[in-house]
Amino acid sequence: MNNYAYTGAGLIVFYVGLKMFSGGMKGMGNIDHLSWFLGNPIYMFFGSIAMTLAWQSSSLSTTAIIALVASGVLPLPAAVAAVLGANIGTTGTIWLAGVLVSDGMPRGDTLRIAVIHTSANLLMAAGLLPFVNQIAKAVGRIG
Length: 143
What we know:
Blueprint: H1 3-26, H2 35-38, H3 41-55, H4 58-70, H5 76-89, H6 91-102, H7 108-128, H8 132-140
């Protein structure tokens, strides 16, 4: 099998996995015992950083966030904060890749790319996190 076939098969498996994950999240049922966490944008911000770091996939985190919003469990301001957190969490992947490629702490261009990626996401989160309620109100008018 050639590399294109492996790549295509991997994307299909990834897509099907995300669809199954999203369906499972939507059908979780009553999770009122987590409302103290899910309703708090700051908790969701840090929680999504931790979860994205844990499973090394901002796509999976974003799918979970969308599924929770669609099921009515996650309020939009907390979802906005969670997406910002997932963007920071995904920087862990580039640091991990840098460590593996560099046989230790990233150096040279690998280090520079990791720093830029992390800095851009941190600056974006720092700039937008104080305004998650206003952002949620603005995007709430869409559709």
